[in-house]
Amino acid sequence: MDETKNIIDELGIIALETNIKIAGVAVVSDSGKIVYQTDNWDLTTQTNIILNVIKGDRSFVLNDVEFSVVETTTEGIIGTNDNGMGHVIFVPFQGGVLVSYAMPRADPPKTLAFLKTFAMRLSEKV
Questions:
Q1: Which residues of 14-41 are buried (b: 16+ CB within 10 A; e: fewer)?
Q2: Chain mean pLDDT for the chain
Q3: Of 4, 19, 45, 96, which one has the greatest count of Cβ atoms within 10 A?
Q4: Rounded distance, CA 5 to CA 60, Å?
Q5: What are the pLDDT digits (tens) for 15-74?
Q6: Do residues 98 and 119 make contact, with C-beta atoms less than 8 angstroms apart?
Q7: Strand, coil or helix: 72
Q8: Cβ distance 126 to 36 under 8 Å?
């Protein structure tokens, strides 16, 4: 857990320094357990939704906001709110998924590429 927290803390610092526009982050295990989440984003009761997106759902609701999957690549999944309320980026890794809320003015592909480097560091640690 400490190692996961340290990786996410570093992610937050670098995201701020490089203007990535991430507002919340969570790490969810393949079994649906919240391993870590930032204090401002509670996904405790929504892990099944996250895992269903990884399995192929094309739309989802997190914290009462509806998102549609707009891009699925080998790197991850980008969900966007049609009303301009931001994006949710999913980056699977060995043992779980890194989930991030990106603000409306974020660049989702750039955010996905940024998160991928941290997801690789989380592999097999969850």
A1: ebeeeebbbebbbbbeeeeebbbbbeee
A2: 95
A3: 96
A4: 27
A5: 999 999 999 999 999 999 999 999 999 999 999 999 999 999 999 999 999 999 999 999
A6: yes
A7: strand
A8: no
